[in-house]
Amino acid sequence: MSRAPHLGWRLATIFTWLLLLFLVAPIVMVVPLSFSGNSFLEFPPTSWSTRWYAAFAGSLDYRQAVMNSVIVGLPVALLSSIFGTLAAIAIERGALPGRRILAALFVAPAIIPQMVLAIGLYPLMVQVGLIGSFPAVILGQTVICTPLVFLAVGAALRGYAPSYELAAMTLGAGRWHTFWLVTFPMIRPAVVIGFILAFTVSFDELILAMFLASPTTRTMPRLLWEQLTYEMTPTIAAATASILAATGVLLLVAAWVGRRSTVRLDAAP
Amino acid sequence: MRRPRPWSPEAGYRAWIILPALFMLAFFVIPLGRVLFTSLSPADGIGLGAYQALFRDAVFSIVLLETLRIALMVTLGCLVLAYPVAYVVAELRGRWQRLALAMILLPFWTSAVIRSYAWLVIFQRQGPFNQVLLGLGVIDRPLRPLNSGLALDVGMLHIMLPFMLLPLLSAMWRIDRRLLLAASVLGAPPWRQFVHVYLRLSLPGVAAGCALVFITSLGFYITPALLGGSGTMMVSQLIYQQASRLLNWPLASASGSVLLILTSVLFVLYQRIGQPRTARRARPPVAGDVAEGRA
Amino acid sequence: MSGATEGASLRYVAVAKRYGPLTALHPVDLSIASGEFFAMIGPSGSGKTTLLGITAGFVTPSQGQVLVNGRDIVGEPPHRRAVGMVFQNYSLFPHMTVAENVGFPLRMRRVKRAEIAARVQAALAMVRMGQMGDRLPAQLSGGQQQRVALARAAVYRPALLLMDEPLGALDKNLREEMQDEIRRLQRELGATVVYVTHDQQEAATLADRVAILRNGRVEQVGPPHEIYEMPANRFVASFLGEANLLPLEATQGERARTAGGLELAVATSDAASGPEPTLCLRPENVRLGEAAAGLGNAWTATVLEAVHIAGSIRYRLQLPGGTVLLARAPARIGDPVWQAGATVVAGWRPADAVILLA
Terminus-to-terminus CA distance in chain C, angstroms? Predict the structure, then answer.
């Protein structure tokens, strides 16, 4: 639609870019803050240094928290990808009775307040003796990350006709071959995107980690949170900026995979 | 004699639900059921004792009302700000649209801890907010936005805006532009084209965005804990306090149950009115569909 | 790839499908001979796709048997049925090359690598796609994709080939070209083909026999020309080509009166005892001008409209009493043409019209 540069339209465009700037600016601001030479949080910093990155990299606490986040995040992403993909295929292709309710069950964990889930999981984990361990955090976060994979894979499955799978079956492929040679290649981009998003969410998750982790298994967000409540040094800014960079890279990968996948899926008739 | 159960393409996929369903049962349904159950049995037999205690004390009612008020304000604020922006972004093409999308998705996928932290820095006593206002001469001594609720409002708006923008965008992308053309050929003036065609067709996105923002806002913990100062408290903060400081699990469970029931009802309503699950065009799932799930 | 396989014989015995209270298919009995090209046509929702799905194994019938060479295959999974199928959207796997797609059924059958390569090449050559083996489906046109889909369904020489509106997504010229191709392929392969379409012209062009379905029932089965000439009822008459359908009020011997008040001569009205007897007259059997004189039925009619359509002229005529009649006459150079508003004698031989019972 071509449109004459109308005054209202111009104002709306200006407003749009201002609002988008408002969305991004506070996050981007963390980066110069992390290179501050001041020992107190000041913006804009009056001098520059990388000492907060040195402090961040040198801190045993931070190093362990990053390690813990990875130790938790990878299994969470893997388990979420498996559960989310299985559920999406069963619900989209299985003609299950009550599929609307089941679908809601696999979306709900992303919507239900995490605090409620946390006070429900805590006594359960105490009972089975997992509280404070990595498996407790992994299982808990997998619950809230599964919906991301479920939604992404579900959308991918709705994006192509089931006749591809039926065609494979008439051509002699049993269930196993149909899944590995046809269904999985078709949904692979969605599974990869879901995996990345699940990892990102796990890497950022605070509330379940607060209840289910112990000081030795605490993840990055929990350490940040503990730091925030009693000191406000630019070390936190350095830590945040690092997380931000990692998140950014992961999202770029996800976007790249997503771009490629739409080309493929749209090309199919 | 009965035939052996016939083979069908659906039957085989059905079994795939078992593993994920068992997982969800064990670590989602049972824990939530447990919260409901604990709320009903404070030591001495099943009863509504915890709820009586909860509502006898004015604190819970105040916190609940405050939570609903904040969620409502954030929802309305997001809608008013996001609608024109989504409209403009939906009209953008090529690299400008990609840039705008990236600017929405970056905060969407950045942790609430980091974003709340950024606002904490901006709004502290010597932070950029006060510096700018002092420098412009608007005020003569530093404001305390962290205690006045201003920081919380701005922070929540900032965090929830992408949740409104993405459903709006996905609804607006689906609007067939030829309908507007048809309306103009039929003689509708531009404002009527907008109200009768565009606005109406974008309503599913409005409904989805509002439900998503409202439901998510109800459960917020991080932002109010960090930016809310001492004046405001939301239900999740109260639950945390009851559970981990007071160790009063029946009370925490009763608060949690109220929040759980409230969000569940809204979620069911949202599923009913929102998203008709018909075939959609395949889009990058990063943008549209995952917006439903990231909350 | 040479030498034809023996096509399978196919028999449906009281095959029906119900979804709860909805009946998608009432009990169907049909026999399809070995090597026959059999088309099923009908509007959407007529049950033709359900029947095809039952044959392929995607849909489990509520009752009945599907006999292939005398053996009941109900309950057998599609991958054990050795039935080939071509889909309307081609369903070529987008992540595999053309050669990988065509080789897929052979790979599933554990054929040796070298043999796969040879047979894929032969199958592609058969559909004139020999040079395209390395392409991805997305790089092919619609017609080329359909050729590959045909090669893929035929490469393992199934004795039974099912086709679900295979030409539905192609434009008209390409469709006609592909019809010839499919017919040639079937002759070379010798397979039995069951072909679903909603295009009656396509069915008539391709098929040895046609079944017409409506609302989950088979209305009529037979060679296309036979159905065209002797339709079983009004639905079949109007679905297959154009027809003048004149409801009859009274019949006696070789005379009949239409609801519009015309007194007609008919070949025989012995059979006209059905609930709603109707006279079916094909437009090309209506003669005009001198040719109409002396026929059993002749009236002076007013031309309402005359439209030239590819080699023939289609007239809309009004007979005395208001009855509107369609007539089609070849547009040969030199033949008289009547314009709208002209009067002309229109008539037909009693033997050229059929009386339908329902």
Answer: 49
Q: Which residues contact B100 (CB under 8 A, 6 or more apart)?
A: A16, A20, B89, B92
Residue B231 in tokens: 């004046």
Token pair for residue C143? 């017609």
Nearest to A238 by CA among A250, A227, A230: A227
Helices (H) and strands (E) in chain B, counts: 17, 0
User: Cβ of A159: how many Cβ atoms within 10 Å?
Assistant: 21
Domain made up of B58-293: CATH architecture: Orthogonal Bundle (1.10)
Which pLDDT tens digits describe chain C residue by residue (358 residues)? Answer: 445 578 899 999 999 999 888 899 999 999 999 999 999 999 888 899 899 999 999 898 999 999 999 999 988 889 888 899 999 888 999 999 999 999 999 999 999 999 999 999 999 998 888 898 999 999 999 889 999 999 999 898 999 999 999 988 788 888 888 898 899 889 888 899 999 998 888 898 899 999 999 999 999 999 999 999 889 888 999 888 888 998 888 777 778 888 887 888 887 756 556 677 888 999 999 998 888 877 888 888 899 999 988 788 999 999 888 889 999 988 888 788 888 888 899 989 888 888 888 7
- Do residue A248 and residue B106 have CB atoms under 8 angstroms apart? yes
Query: How many CB atoms neighbour CB A231 within 10 A?
Result: 9
Instruction: Give all chains having 3 or more CB-to-CB distances under 8 Å with chain B.
Output: A, C
Buried b (16+ CB within 10 A) or exposed e, C38-51: bbbbbeeebbbbbb
* B9 interfaces chain C, CB cutoff of 8 Å: yes
Is residue C126 within 8 A of residue C184, CB to CB? The reply is no
Is the previous residue joined to A44 through a cis bond, with omega within 30 degrees of 0? Answer: yes
Contacts of C57 in chain A (CB under 8 A): 169-170
Kindly provide the ipTM of the predicted complex, given to two decimals: 0.87
Dihedral of CA atoms C144, C147, C149, C152 in degrees, nearest 10, equals -130
Nearest by CB: B292 against A44, A151, A159: A151
Rounded to whole angstroms, how far apart are CA atoms C64 and A56? 74
Beginning with the edge strand found earlier in the chain, give each strand of the sheet holding C324-330 in spatial order. C287-288, C343-348, C297-309, C312-318, C324-330
**Residue B49 CA: distances (Å) to CA of A162, B40, B44, B261:** 53, 7, 9, 18
Task: Identify whether the C-beta of residue A189 lies closer than 8 Å to the C-beta of residue B96.
Answer: no
CA–CA separation, B38 and B32 (whole Å): 10
Domains of chain C: 10-229 (3.40.50.300), 242-350 (2.40.50.100)
Ranges of each domain in chain A: 59-267
Give C89-134 as a DSSP string: T----TTS-HHHHHHHHHHHTT--HHHHHHHHHHHHHHTT-GGGTT
Q: Rounded CA gap, B286 and A152, in Å? A: 8
Q: Which CATH code fits A59-267?
A: 1.10.3720.10
Interface of A with B in 140-169 (CB under 8 A): 140, 142-143, 146-148, 150-152, 154-156, 158-160, 162, 165-166, 169
User: In whole angstroms, what is the distance from residue C355 CA to residue B238 CA?
Assistant: 85
Interface contact A186-C77, CB threshold 8 A:
no
Question: How many Cβ atoms are within 10 Å of B56's Cβ, its own excluded?
Answer: 10
Going from N- to C-terminal start, the domains of chain B cover 58-293
Q: Which residues pair with C209 in a beta bridge?
A: C38
Residue C20, CA distances (Å) to C24, C51, C283 in order: 10, 17, 43
Return d(Cα A264, Cα A187) in angstroms, integer. Answer: 11
Which residues in chain A have their CB less than 8 angstroms from residue C137's CB?
Answer: 267-268
> Residue with structure tokens 């559960």?
A83
Interface test with C, best of B7, B13, B14 (most C CBs within 10 A): B7
